[in-house]
Structures are given as C-alpha cells and as structure tokens.
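> agent: user asked for a holo structure of the chain below bound to calcium ion. Plan: (1) validate sequence alphabet, (2) canonicalize SMILES, (3) run complex prediction with ligand conditioning, (4) return tokens. Step 1... ok. Step 2... ok. Step 3 dispatched.
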Amino acid sequence: MRRMLTSAVALVLVAGLAVPAGAADTPGAVDGATGIWTLETDGEDLVPIGFGNPDDVPFMGDWNCDGVSTPGLYRRSDGFVYLRNTNTTGIADITFLFGNPDDLPIVGDFNGDGCDTVSLYRPSEARFYVINELGEDGGGLGFAEYSFLFGNPGDVPFAGDWDGDGIDTMGLRRPSDGVVYMRNSNSTGIADINFLYGDPGDIPFAGDWDGDGDDSLGVFRPSTGIAYLKNGNSTGVADRTACLGDSNGYPVAGTFGDLGSVPDPGLWLRPIATGFSQPVQVVAPVDDCRLFVVELSGDIELVSGGERVSTPFLDLSVTTGGERGLLGVAFHPDYASNGLFYVNYSIGSKSRISEFRVSSDPNRADSSSERILLEVQQPSTNHNGGSLAFDRLGFLLIAMGDGGGAGDPNEVAENPNSLLGKILRIDVDKTDGGKAYAIPPTNPFGGGGGAPEVFLLGLRNPWRIDVDGEHLYIADVGQDTSEEITVVTDADGGANLGWNTWEGSHCFDGPCSSSGYVFPTLEYSHPDGCSVTGGHVYRGRIFDQLTGTYFYGDFCRGWIRSFVYDGSAATQATDWTLVLGTVPPISSFGVDGFGEIYVTSFSGGAVYRFDPLP
Ligand SMILES: [Ca+2]
Ligand SMILES: [Ca+2]
Ligand SMILES: [Ca+2]
Ligand SMILES: [Ca+2]
C-alpha cells in the first residue's frame, strides 16, 4: 500500500548506515454511524475528517502518487467511487462509476508505478479484476487489464505488498475459520502464504505497521472495537493493538502524512449508551479500549466496542440512600500488569475504600478479592465525597466530605485530626504501622500534628477531583452561596481550602481572616448553578485545541463550562451551552484510557462523549 521502489533503492544506496526505517502505516477508523474518519498520526494523535456518508465502503490509497494515503469510498447506492487527494474534510477530487453493486473495492499499487488504483473483487465469482488506471472501469469490466480467480465465494479480500517488491498483490480471509490466504503475484494459483489469524468475524486490512517495507495483516474486531496488528504474516499474537471505535467502525490504513495543521472539528455530546442506573463515573485503565461505567447502586458496568456488556464487571453490595452508594473507582497505574483497582463506597454508616483484583476473565472482577484499606465513620447520609484518583507520584487520593448535616456542625473540615472534609493521600503499594497501606513520606502530618492520611484540609463535599500532572483540580460543592474549583499542586500538602470558615470567597463561620487559606481558582454563585460537578483536563488525541482545558459542569443546571489554568489563575473561561446544550442533572465527567472526555447524566442514565461533529 505504499511506494516501495523509492525507499527500497534508498536503503540499498545507504546500506550500512543507520537510516530510519520508512514511514510506517498507521490505522484509522471510519465511523459507520457518522461517516467521520479518524486517522492516527505518527504521534498517535487522532485527526477526524468528514467525507462521504455513513453507509459508504471506505478505503485509503495514494491516488496522486505523492506518497500520502487519502480517503476513497464506494457508494453502493449510486455505484460511484469518490476519491479525495487530501486528508481534510471536503468533497471528492475524483469520481467514477464502479463495477456492480456487490463488488468490493480493492486498493493497491498493482503495477509498481507508485500510484494506487481501485480494483475490484467479485465475491460471487471469487474473481479479482485488476485495474491500473483510475476511472477506467466506467461501470463495466471492459477496462480491467486482467482478471484472475482466487479463493472461494464469500472470502473477504484485501491487498498489500507481502514480499516487499513494490507491487501489491491480493489476499483473502475466510470468515468461517479465520484462515488468511495470500498471493505474491496477481494470478490464479494456490496461496503463497496461509495462516490462521484472529476470530472468524474479524475484518481484515493490511499495512506496513513497522515501516520495514513489507505489508502485513491487521484484523478489526467489531465486537470490541479493537484492531490487532501483526508485523509478520504468520499465526501469533498481535505486535500492537489500536482502538478503532465501535461496532459501527470500519478499519483503514495508510501513510497519512503531516496532519498537524488540520483545524479541530466542531464538538458535540454524542450519546454512547443510556439506561444506566444513576451513572456517576466513566473510567478506564490507561490504553484500555473499554469503558467502565460506575453506577451509584453498586455495579461497575462495561461498554466494549460501543455495546454494553451484559454482565457487570463488579456487582458490589453497597448502602444507598441520600448521597451514599458506590461513589468512585480508580484503576491502579499498573493495572495492565497487576489487575488492581480501588473503590469508594458506602457500607452501613461508613465510607469504605477497598482494593479489588480482576479475575482470569478480563471482563469480570474477582468479587472475592476485596482488601479493605480504610473505613471512615459518616455522621450523615450526605457529603460523603466520593472521588478516587492516583496522583503522578502513584499515591491514591481519596476525597472525603465533611460528613454532612449542614454547615459542618461538628467543625471537622479544618480539624487536621479528622479524616472528614479532606483530601486524603495513601500509598496502596506498601503497608506499615498495622495499616493496610502506607503513609507517603511527604504527607503534611506524617510526623504528627494531625491524621497522617490528611493531604488537604477545609473541604465541604469534594464530589469530583482530577489529577493533571502535578496539578490537582478540587471541585468542592458549596452550601447556599458559592460553588468552587481550586487548583493546587501535589507539593501543596497541608493547604487549607477554607471550609467552613469560608464558603468560596464568602465568610461563612467567622471571624474570617484570609491568612492561611487557599482561595478558589474559580467560583460561581447560586442560582447560576446549585452544585458543582468537577470534570477533567482534556488530554485526549482528537481535539488539539482543547488540550489543557479543564471542563466542569453544574449538577442542577446541566451546563458545561471550561477554563485553562495558567499556573496561577483560571483563564479562557468558556461556557459551552451554545455548542453542547445542557444535560441536567450532570452527575459526573469521565475519561477513557486515551484521555477523551465523557459526561454522565442521571436523566436517562446516559453517558455522552465529546465527539467530532459529523
Ligand atoms: Ca496521495
Ligand atoms: Ca499503480
Ligand atoms: Ca509484492
Ligand atoms: Ca512491515
């Protein structure tokens, strides 16, 4: 699928020198529901472009022989092929009629001239029709240079340069058994290469994933949205995986060139799944394609390949009512190797923080693996906090509310000896002092003067917190006047965020002196909202211009706003209502394994994702 002659010659000429390998092909995905193409760059950014309609058959090729692969599609409804020469949103540069409705497009450089063309495979005949000039088909097959039989009716075709000679040849994958058959010449004959790869229902595609000059197979599994890419054409495990969307997705691959200057597309809240029972978080281990949706009632549900998995990942018995329930989940930074994750839930009149481990089935936790780390007595059913998050040092942050009632009646939030009204910080990888965890050496009261778990003081109900590098974003729900978000660093242990002397920047329980307090980075008043729902700093791969932007919402009003923290203040404050609408009650935000942002709403039990506008 790439121009091999040039790089093969270059490699010969500089043999013995340390030259970089040729540009590797990268995968992309075409969303069958929206027609949005999402192309992975060398830096693993994702660049979305709009081209074609949802039901088109998509592919990539180098139509103008400049070394860059660009989109093409076959529209069965009108029998036309549409090709584009740049990786930007727009209309076709080249259009021509193509074959019969059931024919499948096959893209490659079948004569080694450095240009890709669209040939076709007729499944009913198991025959390839090879075309080396764009547009010559003209609706019939009279312009095909030659044709040949290969495989059985029903096989799924693809093309690539299996032997690195600069000429693409055909391959087939048999859906019934997952066996792959490849030819090194475009002629009738038995397969030169055959091997078993993937599950029967996988979709094959090909590319030079390692940039060594020959193409090899990848398969896309619609049920999980995962592509498995292999660097050699043989049976075995994948050399890399890529999340290519959901079961509506279709895989493409190519050398996409410099996509850095493509402007961000518009943004919308795409409904991913609905019908959850009071969803309060979306979370995933780093680089994991799945979504874990936390329900207040105690289940952690799974979404894989865009579809909800029928059995929950974990079904936890929790105490509900008021603001109690399963409140927060965090995956260990090394989850991929140790399978550990942490939950914050209500049990009786206590908040409990526990560790669990995944079972031998990656879609099920081992419900018998619970290791209770910490329990905190809760005086009331509200203000139980809820967030769990690992900081960049690998310590677990636990958000604890002031124990409820109203106005912090027991004056616990500023009392360093109480675990209520705090951000706590513990080391889950060690134990000491008879505890199920260790105290990080830099905790402010590790040497005395307060409870050693305490990290930040003066919180009312920090329902949602976020970690972004050294920065911690604490969204603290207010009493009757003011909602606040405070940004501190992981070196600010011991900081007092003010409650209940201060509610935001308003004196609540005087006398009020401003000395010794950290005041909000941003606050808003009632009735502009009623209860802040903290979100996340965008670190995803699609929206470059949102990188570093912190999103948050209001539970009651359902609006979404953002700011950029510049190291000392909130800048670029933005209200997204005209773009995203409102989805009250916003219970939480979430982030997937690749940094894309989600929103959960109690209305309809819905999970939404920030998505490129179709
Ligand atoms: Ca091109
Ligand atoms: Ca060619
Ligand atoms: Ca070849
Ligand atoms: Ca290769």
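> agent: step 4 complete. Summary for user: The two ends are 28 Å apart (CA to CA). Confidence is low (pLDDT under 50) at residues 1-21.
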